[in-house]
Design goal:
Two copies of one chain form a homodimer. The first copy, chain A, is an alpha/beta fold and about 350 residues long. Chain A has a domain of about 200 residues: NAD(P)-binding Rossmann-like Domain (Rossmann fold, 3-Layer(aba) Sandwich). In chain A, about 35% of the residues lie in helices and about 20% in strands. Chain A starts with a strand and ends in a 29-residue tail after the last helix. The interface between A and B is large, with 40 and 39 residues.
Chain lengths: ~350, ~350
């Protein structure tokens, strides 16, 4: 039986992974550590499983004498307005978080980390294979996220090389879906919450920047396969994403069409917004040949819209209700949101 | 009057910077923190100045209630065999070190950090301007150094952006000179110690990889100008190096010639050894127009040879004496050394 720790388990991706972990019969205890900075207690509220234990704490200062067979490190904001506002805290969550979590791993245990396609920065090759070294400005306003993901990867792969640490690192590409914060600030959730609250849809830049939109069920299915389901000799970081590349503007137009033609307005681009992003899935197909993204963006966006409609229902459909869903969370930030992120 | 902390002040570059700081009349106290991992107490032994206080400690766990007007963060191994052997410790020294040091900085104080030209990885442009985003493999065997420098830069520049932190970051290019450890493992010191101890000079690869060899007096003079001497509105990272690019083999041949024709042997390249490295000094000339590298590699190598000759004299000229100079230091690592680093 396995004792499992999930850092950031109340977050968007983290909570979906908790659902998957609790389907396993060999998990005896699942400890979630989350400071509810960008995570939300509601994301776990549906779970009645007695194996789940929630600890509200920063991961980097977690106090516990427990050790774990498997550790999943999802603790980080993932949306630019959030990490650009608190860069030091972002680096701390990722990297100091990893240092702390390594102390809690049993000898021979497995350490799984959610890195990001942001390690590629604004890529000069497309699609991006894992071997692409990226183009990140390590002094720029997005660097706290990009560089703390890169440096945490370095820490883990160097421990793999020097000490044989059992490491699994995934690099997700633009994941969206239910349990995204309404005030998350990234494109799909922004478009949907704007449309649902009677506002225009805001596109930053010309909207022609492309992304590979991965519906959360597809992405987390890929994570689970690499993290624990599939046996593999592949030891590198693994791209997990949808390789159908769609422009931000196309998504905005689609959300608009679902809501009866909400107007689209354009605002200036945020700094260093990548122009393109698309995963090379060669290694993913090798590691998990049975896996592929099954949810089209049209279907995924429609499902996400349904979820947000229910999520936003209990309150009046006003912008002021957004971000005030959880009484336990920090005071929500006032975010303008970057719709192309 | 300024209270100053130098992390890594017993190291190669750090100790030279302590000499320069103690020339200042406005420094009332200079605290050196060093764990003597790659630093050596001998590097400070010549200083009799009562303002100097030495604390032997890892920087990331430094215990003190003092705060400082200026903090200089030089704490990191800089030679590949050292950081490749202890990558976790290397990341910790740089990044967790920076977190700890930031706690000790007085409000309005200045934080100076020695990054590295290694942030450029194996560069695809030459010379490298500070704006070049680099080509670093964040999962590779050199990544602990490269990525911890990059991530620490990110931390500091993001604090500059969000909180107005007064930051000065330099990126030195291949510095060499007196006070390099005999077992440092990089090219100039390796060639010299090999020649002085009756061994062949080892060149890794074909030796045609180029470097910009900066003599320590020139490099630290540039640091001092950017860190405290010159007023400037330039707020970015600053390349400091010698832009005369010389191959590793040429340096080996020159050392050989100084020692009467020591044989040169070739060994396979270390992993991911950069093929070239040369600073674009446009910004350096803007910040400090009066500065330039004045010491040619011929002169600098000869001076370094003299220093090593004296340094190695007290013991018999045997390889076993190298690295055992300081009774206070950790057991020296057995290093083969990478002569092209």
């Amino acid at each position: 039986m396995k004792r499992v720790l999930v850092a950031g388990g109340a977050g968007f991706i983290g909570s979906h992974m908790c659902d998957k972990l609790l389907l396993r019969k060999d998990v005896s205890k699942l400890v979630v550590v989350d400071n509810l900075w960008t995570g939300r207690a509601e994301n776990l509220a549906h779970i009645k499983d007695p194996r789940l234990h929630f600890v509200r704490s920063d991961v980097e200062t977690l106090q516990t004498s427990d050790t774990f067979d498997e550790i999943y490190h999802f603790a980080s904001p993932a949306s630019p307005p959030w990490y650009m506002k608190e860069p030091k805290r972002t680096i701390s969550a990722n990297l100091l978080g990893a240092f702390r979590l390594l102390d809690l791993l049993k000898k021979g245990g497995r350490f799984c980390f959610t890195s990001s396609s942001e390690v590629y920065g604004d890529p000069l090759v497309s699609p991006q294979p894992e071997s692409y070294k990226g183009q990140v400005d390590c002094t720029g306003p997005r660097s706290s996220y990009d560089e703390s993901k890169r440096c945490t990867e370095s820490l883990l792969f160097e421990l793999q090389r020097t000490q044989g640490l059992d490491v699994r690192v995934v690099r997700p590409f633009n994941c969206y879906g239910p349990r995204t914060r309404p005030d998350d600030g990234r494109a799909v959730s922004n478009f949907i919450t704007q449309a649902l609250t009677g506002r225009s849809i805001t596109v930053f830049g010309d909207g022609l920047q492309s992304r590979s939109w991965g519906y959360v069920d597809d992405i987390t299915e890929g994570f689970a396969r690499y993290f624990w389901m599939n046996e593999t000799d592949y030891r590198g970081p693994l791209n997990v994403g949808n390789d159908r590349e769609i422009s931000v503007l196309d998504v905005a137009k689609y959300v608009s069409s679902l809501m009866g033609g909400v107007p689209i307005v354009f605002k200036p681009s945020p700094p260093q917004d990548p122009t393109n992003r698309r995963p090379d899935l060669t290694n993913a197909k090798y590691v998990m040949p049975e896996w592929s993204c099954k949810v089209s963006y049209e279907e995924g966006v429609a499902k996400t819209l349904d979820w947000f409609r229910a999520e936003l229902k209990p309150r009046a459909p006003k912008a002021s209700a957004i971000g005030a869903r959880s009484p336990r969370q920090r005071k929500p930030m006032q975010l303008s949101g970057f719709s192309s992120l």
